[in-house]
Amino acid sequence: MPSLLLVVILVELAVHLVNTIGAATLNNMLWNLYLAVPTQTSKLGAEQRQLQKESLALRRDLNATSSQDQFAKWAKLRRQHDKVLEQIEKTKSTHEAAKAKFDRTAGIIRWSATSGVKFILPWIYGKEPMFWLPHGWFPYYVEWILCFPRAPLGSISIGSWQVACTVVVMLINDTITAILGLMLGAKTAQKQELKEPAKAGGEKKGAAAVSQGAKREKEL
């Protein structure tokens, strides 16, 4: 069943990516994409940003106006500023409620598409062999472990295939991380090597200048 083999690999890869990136980071990315779509929530976010700009402008005008010399203007600006702040608080509470609802929905969908599928697949295809082992190559106890819990003896069960895919994905991730670490370390070392000759050259020039100054003093 090559299609099921591929599905298991993709599910394990998706679970690993979610765990590596983090649920909160994914939710924020999806939330920003959702705000880019013309919806009521995106309009509310734009309205909140506009109110914040108005609040800053009113705050600047309020600070530039004397409460003693221009009391009427100052009081008017203060009322406008308080009104804008009240509107900001209302839109902020509505925006936060929409964000919390979005996070719950995104979390349910994400779990269903990754971990949920990972748990459901063995329950549905527990008796299906992923592929068969060569006959007589492995002892009985090895075949029994690889076909656990319900696959035919001599085959690889979906549970064993999931474990193998998880291990391979983690090994690939560790290998890529190690390679990137070595590359960054090599670049850092190369930059330091380039800085050291330049520093040494500057020190030599300084020493030469000092020695020349000393010679001139002796000649004088």
UniProtKB/TrEMBL annotation:
Q: Does the entry feature the keyword Magnesium, yes or no?
A: no
Q: Which residues lie on this side of the membrane: Lumenal?
A: 1-4
UniProt topological domain (Cytoplasmic) ranges: 173-220
What terms describe the molecular function in GO for this protein?
protein-membrane adaptor activity
Protein localization:
Endoplasmic reticulum membrane
InterPro entries registered for this protein in UniProt? Get1, Get1_fungi, Helix_hairpin_bin_sf
Query: One GO biological process from the UniProt record?
Result: tail-anchored membrane protein insertion into ER membrane
Where is the secretion signal located?
1-20
Q: Where is this region: Disordered?
A: 194-220
Membership in a protein family:
Belongs to the WRB/GET1 family.
PANTHER family, sorted: GUIDED ENTRY OF TAIL-ANCHORED PROTEINS FACTOR 1, TAIL-ANCHORED PROTEIN INSERTION RECEPTOR WRB
**Protein's name in the database:** Uu.00g072010.m01.CDS01
> What is the phylogenetic placement of the source species in the record?
Eukaryota, Fungi, Dikarya, Ascomycota, Pezizomycotina
